[in-house]
Amino acid sequence: MAHHAQHRWTLDAHEVGMLWEAAFHVNESHVVMAKVRQQTSGVKTTRDLPVARLTSPSSSTAGFFQNPPKLRNQFFEDAALQRAFSLFLPNDVKSSISNDLSTFGTTVLEQKVLVWTADAEAHPPRLEAWDIWGQRQDRLVTSEGWRNLEALGISEGIVAIAYENRYNEYSRLYQFLKYHIWTGSCAYVTCPSAMTDGAAKLLSRHTVVDTSLSPDKEVFRAAYDRLISRDPSKAWTSGQWMTERVGGSDVRNTETLATYARGSKSKVTKTDADGAPLGPWLINGFKWFSSATDANMAILLAKTPDGGISAFYAPTQRIVSGKLEAEDSSLVTTKLNGITIQRLKSKLGTRPLPTAELSLTNTRAYMLGNPGQGVKEISTILNITRIHNAVTACGLWGRGLAISRAFARVRSVRGRALMDLQPHVRTMAKEHVEYRAYTLMTFFVVALLGVSEQASPKSCQHSQKTGSSAAHLVPSGPAVVLLLRVLTPVLKALTAKAAIAGLAECMESLGGVGYLDSSSPLDIGTIIARLYRDANVLSIWEGTTDVMADDTIRVLKGKEGQDVMAALGQWVDTIVDKWGIAKSFASEACCDNVSQLWRRWTTEVRGKDAEELLVRGRTVMEDLGWLVSAILLVEDADADDVSSAVALRWVSKKGDVKRKGQLTWTEEVGLDRKIVFGESDMAVAKL
Ligand code: MFK
């Protein structure tokens, strides 16, 4: 579309002197000229001065229209994602999965998918609580877009990839690289995916890992098979019902009660929608926040009569008439398993996602694990969903930055492309440095998760055979579990906060349009307000930032604290000691800063008691996060100029780095450009 700039010149008194007479005409360039006769200090002169450029006036159909930004395939364009892909995966896995990731990068931006995203956003779920005859029905109506996106996520293996375990310890990396690409388009169907993944992991502990036979195990196994299925007609999703009116962070005062009722003359038919017998526990209570209300099952917490909190598995539907094995399965009628939906929550973001208040009345359930161990059981889910949370944070933020970059390529300001405006690019570069630091940390924790889940050490030798460039970064043995335990809450907290702040910057980088909202399929891919709204839940659900800080300190000062500190120390020392020998430019420059902060941090953690550290929890957590991401960035610094610049800038956040020869400000400006747009856009910009 043509760009008709509007120019207007004014004549000031100094320029014109005493205006004697002016006559106007339009020259051949459509500029209105004033023939000015003027008298200055008694001297009369005649000059032609431009006054205005005559254009046809703008209207709703004429005048300037901004070319919309065009998103590129994020698998290729997102430099941070590319670095994570390159750093943590060995070549054979890279070549095996890159096709799927690049195809999925195209799929998530296809019109068909964006129509679903827009539909899910425009048509939030609604509750039809009663039928017209006054009977309670609790019909949850979700949009077609939401259902199609859920089915797409399932068939693409967003949960299944981890359990298929085709790439052994790299399966989790594959899963979450794909998940990252999915995040910006998926209308938060990843919330049920997160809980489904967590539930699958918990159930696998009770079936795959613990293979002792019991009738319960068969039920768990059947549910597990559905949770990890890629077939949308078979697959289940899971909810996680923990939060009550009395508390989301502190679950000790749970008011939901469980009573054992095996053999009681319950009137309900005794199978769930899958034909499995219903559990022997009756759950009664009220759950205040249940996301994924359309899930097929849930893991929930309830108190047993002895006052202990236990974890339970409950299917959400049960059969009330008909038999599954009957020829015509449409004659089977199901209803909710003792669940009524009081109301759907009205939320700032994540609007396509049904989040509800649930009343449980004799909901039939099975206990998972031992009585009184509910928090411990459900923490298996929490540790998975917290990693999902981090990948969602990076995914939403990554989409926001992609929109910001795309806009800077097409927008002109004062006659220059925004991508040539140095102050603008400096701000963007700062954001890209942060994003890269947190993206590498996220995929490092994902790599730890992948290694921790391999039953046999044999499968973990994969990296030694095929040579991942980060093989030395991801340890094996007991250290993996310890690092994973302490870094999961740190990662969850820091990525959520950074993504929220980062998306606010992305929004600002588009000016007024960044603040706009739309659920049109044509706009939905480039609406940052939606991403920003949705990101705000990330620092709240699955544990607030302070709860994560509290958890971090409890780990550091708890019964495994010494082991965790030793594992961290060994990890840092093994890597940083090598920096002295290798003397790459970045490692030489950054070595002192990282070592100093590490020494200060360990002295503080070891020297202060838990009570004092809890008060300083956020700082302790932030410093640990900075340290881990600094180490990863420096390790990656040799990849190219940009990686080296990113590492130096990140490390400089905590004090100047010693480097030979400072760069000039114009060299820094050149690096800003490369950090944001990479090398390929530099050539385009010069044209
Ligand atoms: C996506 C869209 C969503 C839409 C809207 C949603 C809005 C938000 C709604 C919400 O309410 S989200 C809030 C969800 N709540 C949480 O995520 C819980 C946050 N709180 C915590 O994580 C607390 O740390 C916790 C509840 C776990 C603390 O509980 P306790 O009762 O103080 O347990 P304690 O004594 O710390 O731990 C009990 C056992 O579990 C210990 O093991 P031992 O018995 O062997 O000593 C702990 O080590 C273990 N444990 C606790 N956390 C663990 C863990 N083990 C492994 N990993 C963990 N993370």
Mean pLDDT: 89
Number of strands: 16
- Structural class, by secondary structure, is alpha+beta
Shape: globular
| Straight-line distance between termini | 19 Å
Overall helicity:
40-55%
Helix count equals 22
Radius of gyration, Cα only, in angstroms?
30 Å
Give the quaternary arrangement of the chains. single chain
SSE blueprint:
Elements: H1 13-16, E1 18-26, E2 31-40, E3 43-53, H2 74-77, H3 79-88, H4 91-107, H5 111-122, E4 126-130, E5 136-141, H6 144-155, H7 160-164, H8 171-183, H9 190-209, H10 215-227, E6 238-241, E7 257-260, E8 281-291, E9 297-303, E10 309-315, E11 317-321, E12 333-336, E13 339-344, E14 355-368, H11 374-410, E15 412-413, E16 416-417, H12 422-452, H13 462-466, H14 478-509, H15 528-535, H16 545-557, H17 561-582, H18 585-607, H19 610-615, H20 617-635, H21 641-652, H22 665-686
Parallel strand pairs: 6-9
Antiparallel strand pairs: 1-2, 2-3, 4-5, 7-8, 8-14, 9-10, 10-14, 11-12, 13-14, 15-16
Helix pairs in contact: 3-12, 4-8, 5-6, 8-11, 8-12, 9-10, 9-11, 11-12, 11-14, 11-15, 12-14, 12-20, 12-21, 12-22, 14-15, 14-16, 14-17, 14-20, 16-17, 16-20, 17-18, 18-20, 18-21, 20-21, 21-22
Bound molecules: decanoyl-CoA.
The site of decanoyl-CoA has 24 residues, from β8, α11 and α16.
Structural summary, described in words:
Residues 372-554 form the Acyl-CoA dehydrogenase/oxidase C-terminal domain. Residues 240-362 form the Acyl-CoA oxidase/dehydrogenase middle domain. The structure is a single chain. The chain has 687 residues and is an alpha+beta fold. Helix 8 runs antiparallel to helix 12 (422-452), helix 18 runs antiparallel to helix 20 and helix 21 packs antiparallel against helix 22. The protein is built from 22 helices and 16 strands. The chain has helices at residues 13-16, 74-77, 79-88, 91-107, 111-122, 144-155, 160-164, 171-183, 190-209, 215-227, 374-410, 422-452, 462-466, 478-509, 528-535, 545-557, 561-582, 585-607, 610-615, 617-635, 641-652, 665-686; strands at residues 18-26, 31-40, 43-53, 126-130, 136-141, 238-241, 257-260, 281-291, 297-303, 309-315, 317-321, 333-336, 339-344, 355-368, 412-413, 416-417. Strands 6, 7, 8, 9, 10, 13 and 14 form a 7-stranded mixed β-sheet that branches. It has a 3-stranded antiparallel β-sheet with strand order 1-2-3, with no helix packed on it. Residues 1-9 and 683-687 have low confidence and may be disordered. The protein is globular. Decanoyl-CoA (MFK) binds at residues 191, 242-243, 248-249, 251-252, 289, 291, 350, 353, 355, 375-376, 379, 382-383, 537, 540-543, 547, 551.
